[in-house]
Amino acid sequence: NLKKLNIGDEIILTDNNIGQVQYEVFDVYKVIPEDTSCLFPVTEGERELTLITCTSKKKKRIIIKAKEVK
Q1: Are 62 and 52 in contact (CB under 8 A)?
Q2: Does the pLDDT at position 18 exceed 90?
Q3: Which of 28, 27, 31, 29 has the alpha carbon at shortest distance from 43?
Q4: How far apart are CA 34 and CA 13, in angstroms?
Q5: Cα angle 33-13-48, degrees, rounded to a multiple of 5
Q6: CA count, 13 A, side-chain hemisphere, 27
């Protein structure tokens, strides 16, 4: 459940080619649906993950930003 993620939480993605990649959440915020600024990376070259889901009333988007843990 993306709505339960908080800063500092761990996300592990599994890929058939790379294997597991671990990320740590560093930002959680809401935007209006038309705001696409969340799609731009902010970690200056580090591997970054952006997850997007709707709020329960679908009026905003919840953005979860995470960066790779090395």
Answers
A1: yes
A2: no
A3: 27
A4: 27
A5: 55
A6: 14
- 10: alpha, beta or left? (left if phi > 0; alpha if psi -120 to 50): beta
Which SS3 state, helix, strand or coil, does residue 35 take? coil
Helix (H, G, I), strand (E, B) or coil at 59: coil
Amino acid at 31: V
How many C-beta atoms surround the C-beta of residue 65 within 10 A? 19
Better-predicted residue by pLDDT, 51 or 44: 51
Average pLDDT score over residue span 9-24: 93
Amino acid at 60: K
Extract the tokens encoding 36.
């696409």
CA distance 42 to 49: 10
In this structure, what token pair is assigned to residue 14?
Answer: 């599994």
